[in-house]
Amino acid sequence: MGKETTVDVILHPVRMRIIQSLINQEMTSQQIKELLPDIPQASLYRHIKKLLEAGVIHIIDEIPNRGTIEKVYSLQDPANASIDPEKLKNFTKEEHMDLFFKFMANILGEYERYLNQPNIDLVRDGVAFRQTSVFLDDQEYAQFVKDVSEVYVRAMQKMPEKGRRRRTIATIIIPE
């Protein structure tokens, strides 16, 4: 088996969760572990190491802690945690299907983790999934994407704090 590409590294479900945890923030492995308690510690460290080796995440600080050094991780450049559009253009149909399948598998994993929690309440928790078709010309579509992007950016700038829950929002746009 050949060396994993950066795309393969990014698209692993556990690594995608680590990347999502680091969006707009810096965290130690212990803080990541607290945010992702279902991932065994040894597995978490292995995935953090893979992301480091691929240059997706970086160590931005080292803090002495009881005789050890605790590393602080960051995306530093969020562009490294996504697939270059030029590279995406050259994907084969099979590579696009594989990419989409991994994306969908990650969403399924997120939903399954939610459903495995005790005392879920889809209405109270704000669970939603829907599909709709819209008819927009290219200019209207560009404005729609701009508007949605602005809403996403505002929401992504909110830092974790008491009373805030992490929510996964996925967008899929497929032209006819």
From TrEMBL:
Keyword Metal-binding attributed: no
Alphabetical list of Pfam families matching this protein: HTH_20
Annotated SUPFAM superfamilies: Winged helix' DNA-binding domain (SSF46785)
Claim: Metal-binding is one of the keywords in the record: no
Domain of life per record: Bacteria
SMART domains tied to this protein: HTH_ARSR (SM00418)
Any one Gene Ontology molecular-function term assigned to this protein's record: DNA binding
Every HTH arsR-type domain range: 9-89
InterPro entries assigned to the protein according to its UniProt record, in alphabetical order: ArsR-like_HTH, HTH_ArsR_DNA-bd_dom, WH-like_DNA-bd_sf, WH_DNA-bd_sf
Keywords: DNA-binding
Protein name: Transcriptional regulator
Source organism per UniProt: Neobacillus cucumis
Taxonomic placement: Bacteria, Bacillati, Bacillota, Bacilli, Bacillales
